[in-house]
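re: that complex we talked abt at group meeting.

here r the seqs, copy pasted straight from the sheet so there may be weird spacing, ignore it
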Amino acid sequence: MPTIGVNKEEFFEALGQRFTTDEFQALCFDYGIELDEDTEDDPSRPPEEKPQLKIEVPANRSDLLCFEGLARSLNIFRGKQPAPTYRVLDVPEDRMHYITVAKETANVRPFIAGAILRGVKFTEDSYESFIGLQDKLHQNLARQRTLVAIGTHDLNTLQGPFTYEARKPEDIRFRPLNQQKEMDGNELMTHLESGKFLHLLVRWLRKYLHIIRDAPRYPVIYDSKEVVCSLPPIINGDHSKITLNTTDVFIELTATDRTKLEIICNAMVTMFSQYSSEPFTVEPVLIKEADGTRRVTPNLTPVRMEVDVDYINGCCGLNLSPDSLCQLLERMAYTSRPLGSSIEVFVPPTRPDVLHACDVMEDVGIAYGFNKLPRSLSNKSATVGKPLPINKLGDIVRLECAMAGWLEVMSLILCSHDENFAWLNRQDDGTTAVKLANPKTAEYQIVRTSLLPGLLKTVRDNKSVRLPLKIFETSDIVLKDDSLERRARNERHWAVAYCGKTSGFEVVHGLLDRILLMLRVKDYFIQEISDSTFFPGRAAGVYLGKTGGESRRIGEIGVLHPEVLEKFEIKHPVSVLELNLEVFL
Amino acid sequence: MATATSGPSGDLALDILAALSKTDTLSSSADFPNAQFSDLKAALDRLSSRSMISYKQIDQEIPFLEPEGELIAEHGSHEARVFEAVRQALDGLTIVDLDEKEKWISKGKDGKLVASVESIKDVTREQLKTIKTTHAYPDAKVLAELRKRKLVRLQKEISFSIEKGPKFALEIVKEETDLTDEMLANGSWKTAAFKPYNFDALGADQHTGALHPLMKVRQEFRNIFFELGFEEMATDRFVESGFWNFDALVVPQSHPARDLQDTFFISDPKQAAKPHAEDESDKKDYDTYWENVRAVHENGRFGSVGHRYNWQEEEALRLVLRTHTTSVSTAVLHKLAAKRGPDGRPPPARYFSIDRVFRNETVDATHLAEFHQCEGVIADYNLTLGGLMDFMTIFFEKMGIYDLRFKPAYNPYTEPSMEIFSFHKGLNKLVEIGNSGMFRPEMLESMGLPSDMRVYGWGLSLERPTMIKYKISNIRELLGHKVDLNFIEKNPAVRLDKD
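got the structure back, here u go
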């Protein structure tokens, strides 16, 4: 969940009330956001920094990612302000600023939108919020600029119309934002990669380079004088940069995802059109696509939905009139009116997270107050409880082991490749273990195919415990299985380890006998096998069936090979047993 | 029982009894000065456990002579020895600056020292002699002075004051420590004297087997679910496809949860197959489901406008380690959609699971790459949010958690979504204890569930409430191979409603 920091003093001023921490926390709780921190009494706050409220907002709410949006939404929720009507100014097409799209952009970053905010007066705070919102949008919805990149410019430094092109890196020359000298596309990449720049502001751009680094042509936006506005998704030109004196803001957005482009474009203009000379108005930009089609951006038309009154009341357990529901929706910034047995709802452009009637229904619940909703009985229908058979079987084994004096452990399911294979003197033939593509540490490379690594690591890490150690685990291992949809299956195993001054083979063997007795298994035997995990002559297979007759091997029992002990740093002999429990289902 | 220190009888305990028969009170330091402390204590305990004597321990500081003190006690103080030297030197001595203490010596006419008295009283020597023999001195000031002069040191000494007990006798009757089968057989228990039992001692260590603490909590949770009519879901699929783990749950393919940072992807095996029936009894229509899910993502369906992007089959077929057990619930709900109750519709159902899930987290005190998720699902017709809150109240009261508060939250597959909070008295604040919600209609209708069947879902981790309840600060002390086996053995039974 993103966290937004707002100036406490000014925020409470915008809300028209000085809240106590408890009051403000309660408001946040009811609305579905969370006061993470109030830095007023935080001793680590530098004295020159003003107290901040750090507020966590849900990841789907692009309208709460800045001071302006948070204050606006909370004021509408508290009934202190009506929801604004966001409006695209009526400009004849021939007088619109336009961006002509070159067809080469389709291969690298195919979508573009633009918008203009007129007569804006920035303060230091609102400017910072403006930058902050772009950053939050880039991080979250735009997935680190892969989906959408925003460029904002001082329109008065530029000369429309604009072009959106894709050029070879060496054919693009400009002075990037806050850089001293001009460079071409290749130099820019090398420069940003080199890490030898003064500006910290530029250093973090490095993580975006991969998005276009290897493309034959880089996307670039020019004005009519061949001034580079931006090289998305990396950096803007220095020429058109926004200052506190900027009044007319040109916003261009390029994208690989059309829906996200619209969402982010609308987030930018609905939040900051508040500062337009005529608040909540936006001047449109015409996009002349390469195929000759024309689009006007942004599109701030509310999305119309019809939501069944009975559905809302039914889910919320309410019995409210359509009018009352509309009043509740007003507090969540919707425009709505009764329409027969439904409500006609207009979803504002600030709420792209509303996809379905259920989203509207939830907002009714929030406006009403979740904790005030009438409770109803949850046990509508009688159902029958039932344990999973393999868990029931596992519980029998677990209880019997514990009753026999063994300690249950729960080891990790992920382990290193060595722990599962080499350290057990086992070969990986590539047919058993599921391997991870992107683990953060070498501790987790594969999904275990045996419970032994976990048991042996437990023995290793319990050196101070009095001998003998008698431990067991019943849990799943995973095996590759190409015949299945997920290409792998779990298998419930039971394993035990005995570690003492002597091998304790007979103790482990005794436990095997005991558990199989408890499971009413009579036809089983153990028979010597050759297995490099075990000490020669001290390994046996566990078989179901009669000796000499038809039988099936279900596991192994034996004294571990000293080389195995050494790998797991165990200084005492260890006997182990591991079985597939599923055969007893 | 012979002791190391042999008295006349060779048994210190008998010696004590003998000595005590002649007097009312013994002092161990005076009467048994040579007995080893440990022997003495053992003998006294032996006798006192039989109520033959009673004794008190006395802690004292006893003065002993330092080497210099010993010297003085034997040969006299330095002053006295000088005097003696002066007295014997008839012509006087030439040492210039001798102490004129006690006016034993004075300067003669020629500046030589002469004895002014015939003999002297050497007080220091007398004092030290007294201390040497009695190990005491009546005047504490003198003792302090001698200590300051480093002639005497104080040594801590423990001694015992011993008196007769109610069963005082000169002989120790043999006492049996335990009732044995031999005594039962030969009847000797009737005449034998039994040693009193020490009821203050701990019982014998059981070196018992034990279930894992976390599994005990899990069993409590399972019992709660069974009490409430829930069926346990099969969770034997750690490996899932993106489809079941994300797409079927309406999680868009560009959602951050599908990042390499958060989810373990699998390099081997390479790719899942498209969902299909895996045995002949499975008559579910997987192809329609697949196409419904695609539509919900791409253009919207079942009343949803959709996430409106180009949905990639390849992404849906990527294999992952499941990040939640909701993938299991999804498969089970899909199965439910094909079931028919008496009225020809999918029957109401309650399901739960508690099993391992995996996150590609950086490991720290509160995060492991794997943990247990406890998840419940209720499918029924015309469910309400009030019913969900009512259910959560019942569910958590069984764990001893009261006063729930519900906060609006966001979750890609539930709407409404509610975080469940409870006021924690110890932490003096609201603590999040779980997540809940109603599954999105377009997710359920994609499976073929009727639109008036609503489904509650909620989840919580097994580790977190356990850690809060039992004040465990590091998750590695609870799960994995670093867990202390003594902790497993000694962890009390879990009674969530009582603890």
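couple things i noticed - Residues 87-297 of chain A form a domain with the Phenylalanyl-tRNA Synthetase; Chain B, domain 3 fold (CATH 3.50.40.10). The CA atoms of residues 398 and 474 of chain A lie 7 Å apart.
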